[in-house]
Design a protein that fits this description.
By secondary structure, the protein is mainly alpha-helical. Helix content is 48%, strand content 6%. It starts with a strand and ends in a 29-residue tail after the last helix. Bound molecules: s-citryldethia Coenzyme A. S-citryldethia Coenzyme A (SDX) binds next to helix 17. The site of s-citryldethia Coenzyme A has 23 residues, from helix 17.
């Protein structure tokens, strides 16, 4: 808290509210409005929470104007170049980069929780073969609430740690099981001799009939994509996990709520929508027509993978992924990828268009990620599932930060009521 205060005066009544200002370590200060309703009898109004700090957090920082993203203070560009997803998971969960020994122990804890209870595996047989993988993943993650009663005291730090290891370890196995169910192929068990991303690819693509060799280029690309998708402060799905968790709900139920929120095309579902959009656009000649549709509100068409609530500059993750596309496609011998070429031209043309420039609409994390997922063989229906696997680390980090805060309160927003005033019931016989 600082001594700085804002004073709000109701000129009609001369009532005043003294609103303390709180500074963070970096970024905008916040006005503590807790006295507002008591002093002036009003609420604030901020649909979509565009200007509302819902919590204090020490995990991730975004500067939308500068295009900055820090995980526990470390720039995403440095982590992308030098770190690994498991190391970033440790950093996001435990605040500091691990020593070699700490990383080995953490990675081992994750590795030895990757198997699923066999009865949980049988849940997949209940889904229609063309169920969307996100529907299966959110359902099976929620079903984990029906297991693991031995470690469900959310106020016990050891139980929280075991939950973190279990969900981070099992979400790739659940994702791969969903994919195999969609294909009608047998489930492939996790392997303890493979690293996190190689294991993911092996469970997705191996079949019992022949050995499967994971392509190290694909595994490295996936590891980098997971780093970039691991956390992003109070985004919609993370806020969903916090709100669900604030009721004291089972943490698997809270994570499942996050999976469901991520699925929307305005959020994590955009990566799948971008590929569909690029295929719909088809050729560079069609780009102007689709840009006109994106500007025409009545068309309900949006340029998927463009725009962001916070970034009013390039999403730093989009820049890194765009560079990755060049390298991964070249190393996979797929440099002439038509979808990537189309995406590059679309970005170039859109960023010269006044509509996008004036609204500061730049490519976001979802614009290029699908090009890489496709290049390493991941089907479009699994793109958002891959996002969910990575973001599970961020969801768990935020859930743990909230639950371990002694000042935690249940989340309960207020409203501006504009409905009917009080009126009496009329018997149906008297209604017209
Ligand atoms: C993610 O929050 C996070 O951090 C999310 C995320 C994470 O890591 O967790 O970064 C991941 O969700 C990335 C975003 C993925 N979604 C998309 O790519 C879908 C397309 N983008 C939009 O729907 C939109 O840009 C949002 C949802 C991302 C942001 O919406 P906002 O902040 O509510 O912005 P808005 O809808 O108020 O748009 C402001 C203006 C509007 O025009 P005007 O009313 O001023 O005339 O920009 C226009 C919008 O119509 N606009 C677009 C557009 N995005 C915004 N017009 C065309 N195409 C677009 N993509």
């Amino acid at each position: 808290m600082t001594d700085k205060k804002f004073e709000l005066v109701d000129r009609a009544t001369e009532r005043k509210a003294q609103l303390p200002v709180r500074n963070g370590t970096i970024g905008p200060s916040v006005v503590d409005i807790s006295a507002l309703n008591k002093d002036l009898g009003v609420f604030t109004f901020d649909p979509g929470f565009g200007l509302t700090a819902a919590t204090e957090s020490r995990i991730t920082y975004i500067d939308g104007d500068a295009g900055t993203l820090l995980y526990r203070g470390f720039p995403i560009e440095q982590l992308a170049e030098k770190s690994s997803f498991m190391e970033c998971a440790y950093l996001l969960l435990l605040s500091e980069l691990p020593s070699r020994k700490q990383l080995e122990e953490f990675t081992s804890n994750i590795r030895y929780h990757t198997m699923l209870n066999e009865t949980l595996l049988r849940f997949f047989n209940g889904f229609h073969h063309n169920a969307h993988p996100m529907a299966m993943v959110s359902a099976v993650v929620a079903s984990m609430s029906a297991f693991y009663h031995d470690t469900m005291d959310i106020y016990n730090p050891r139980h929280r740690e075991i939950f973190a290891h279990r969900i981070i370890a099992k979400i790739p196995t659940i994702a791969a099981a969903a994919h195999k169910h969609s294909l009608g192929q047998p489930f492939v068990y996790p392997r303890n001799d493979l690293d996190y991303c190689s294991n993911m690819l092996h469970m997705l693509f191996a079949v019992p009939c022949e050995p499967y060799q994971v392509d190290p280029i694909a595994s490295q690309a996936l590891d980098l994509l997971f780093i970039l998708h691991a956390d992003h402060e109070q985004n919609a799905s993370t806020s969903t996990v916090r709100l669900a968790g604030s009721t004291g709900a089972n943490p698997y139920a809270a994570i499942s709520a996050g999976v469901s929120a991520l699925w929307g095309p305005a959020h994590g579902g955009a990566n799948e929508a971008v590929l569909a959009m690029l295929e719909q656009i088809g050729t560079v000649d069609n780009i102007p027509k689709y840009l006109d549709m994106a500007k025409d509100k009545s068309s309900h068409f949006r340029l998927m993978g463009f725009g962001h609530r916070v970034y009013k500059n390039f999403d730093p993750r989009a820049k890194i992924i765009r560079e990755m596309c060049h390298k991964v496609l070249a190393r996979l011998g797929r440099s002439d990828n038509p979808l990537f070429e189309l995406a590059l031209r679309l970005e170039e043309i859109a960023l010269k268009d006044e509509y996008f420039v004036s609204r500061k609409l730049y490519p976001n994390v979802d614009f290029y990620s699908g090009v890489i997922y496709s290049a390493i063989g991941i089907p479009r229906s699994m793109f958002t599932v891959m996002f969910a696997i990575a973001r599970t680390v961020g969801w768990v980090a935020h859930w743990q930060e909230m639950i371990s805060d002694p000042g935690m309160r249940i989340g309960r927003p207020r409203q501006l009521y504009t409905g009917a005033t009080k009126r009496d019931y009329t018997e149906i016989t008297k209604r017209s």
